[in-house]
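> tool_call: predict_assembly(chains=three)
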Amino acid sequence: MSLWKKSRVSDVVHVEGRMETERYIYTPGPVGVKVAEALMEGRIMGVKCGNKLYIPAKTYCPDHSEGELVEVKGPWIVKSYTIIYEDMYGAKLDKPVVIALVGTEEAHGGLIHYVEVEPDKVKVGLKVEPVFRPKEERRGLITDVMFFKPVEHG
Amino acid sequence: MKPERVPGRYIREEDLRRLPGVIEYTPTARYSYSAGQALSEFLRGLKDGRILGKLCPSCRRVLVPPRVYCEFCFTPTTEWVEVTGAGRVETAVTSYIGAARERLEKPEIIGVIRLDAPGHAENSFDFAGLFHKLCGVTEDDVKSGRVIGMRVKPRWKPVHERMGSILDIECFEPLQPREVV
Amino acid sequence: MKSNIFVKDKVAIVGAGLTLFRRRLLETPRELAWEASREALSSAGLTLKDIDCIVVGSAPDAFDGIHMKGEYLADGSGGFNKPVVRVFVGGGTGVMVPVVAWWHVASGLCKTVLAVGEEKMSHAYPHPQGVFAYIWDPILERPLGPNLIWIFALEMRRYMHVCNASKEDIALVSVKNKRNALDHPAAQAAAKITVDDVLKSEVLVWPVQLLDISPVSDGAAALVLASESVARRVTDTPVWVEGIGFTLDNTHWYNRDLAYPRYLEYAARMAYKMAGIERPWKEIDVAEPYDPFDYKELHHIEGLMLARRCEAPKLLKEGYFDRSGELPTSPGGGLLGVGNPIAAAGVMKVAELFWQLRYEAGARQVKKPVHKAVANAWGDLMQAGTVVVLST
């Protein structure tokens, strides 16, 4: 095994490389198009499978049957959350960001989204509502909802 | 007749781009690829104008490009062996397109070269070899098959331009112009 | 080839389904998997509840542009709250999917398996060829600026040289398969063409021209495999998986002769031995050799030992491999005719044999009586061979 013993890490050559493609264009799919159109009109869709409601909307149900698209009207609540202090590269954020699993009491699942709230005010069960972008800025993407914010009392 | 039903909806690119909810994304992932112990030495050899292989102590094959193990015997390879770089063209093709399928202005000829490793084991199926560009041969040589079996040698880049890369070999060219064996 | 395989249960294919194969489909990858799965299940008269285990096959993640495509595709393939495995051996994936599904059932682990292959190649722009750049060795190969077609062209050129086969001989495969695909409802590249059309098509990497290659496709295909007891209950015409084989040849592809597909011969010997087939050229009635390129079908006919080395081009010319011939190959149209959504394409080939052996292929049905069939796929950097042998 002479080779292994003789070699030093500094002897090993490294070659720089980069994986790139001009771009990916991801299709939304036939049901995704309907979900996108609803978002542009300010509606969030789920899928009804028998008497169960699932969020987010999908083409098919867990049992593989075709689901029925329905609007989820709320009331929305925080089902779980986390608070982000650093960005992807480990740099400290100016202001912590609250990310939550937002859903409704009866629905299975939910949306992962931002909640505009002070980190010490967020809790499971917090009542929230979506805040949409102005209509002309919407593109049928989940970011058409800018964030969820706590429902004002009174 | 089966299949009776084939679901799916064809869509043209321009129609897809207009759909609400379509997402465009450009990824870039950067890497630093380790050449490992054997290939690092091989790349340094190229810089010096030498093609290095590793000898398997068990089957006496010369492995070019070199590896730290012989995949036939699954034993560590031992000595370094320098081959002359002379060899024969196994197969060659003419490429009219580039890496992303764009048309090339000038076609390239690419081949597999079976390298001479005299005195060492090889058989008709497995051999020491490299994959590289060919120069000094024509599209017609490829089509007619004259290029196959042709004796070739590496054409090296000038010393000051070498980087320790497979591109330190500019291409493989006929050993003697137009010699066909 | 040593084979010492413990088989607890006999395995049959009892259902098959496909989506359309097209250059670009509106459906998302998981929706394609779902559509094909539904077709396969309904053709078997089963529902997802009846399925014990799931096998999902898909080739490089970079095509769909989703890392860990297996788990992404899983729910569309019914893979949830059940044992699920993703299979990936490049182009060989399509036939590896039924191979892996076979051992799930043969081992006694699962009674029923839904086996799905999916590929969406339209996501990457400007062309999926760009994505192929990352399957090359980054140190020795990628600096040369290779296009994936290079290696296939090198292989084809070597085959032509060793076997003294002409471009005209090889183009006949493309003519035959595209013609066969005219009768396939999912086909993307069915056409009535001549050898001359192939020779006049765009030259990409000589000797490979545009019509020598299968198209870029989106699509999915699925099979339902079941143990003998289940199979006999759900159908009167199960198609038995009699043998499976898979081999990987040396990854240092330019250190070996490219004229003969040794990887396939080894895999085929393994499968034939299991199936008790001693003279495949006599015993096999119909075949789906993997044909992403036209020369590849000839290469694979020889590797599957359905013809002697270098004999395939001559037999092809005589009509031996036509639908009405002695040993029809790619009667459904193959990848050249139906399309090549990588992992789905191999599954499609096995599905075609399933329909042929049940005499359900309609206009595509071969003329002769059929009992035994073989399909193969090929992939990774030209070294993976996967084979299944089927019988009635």
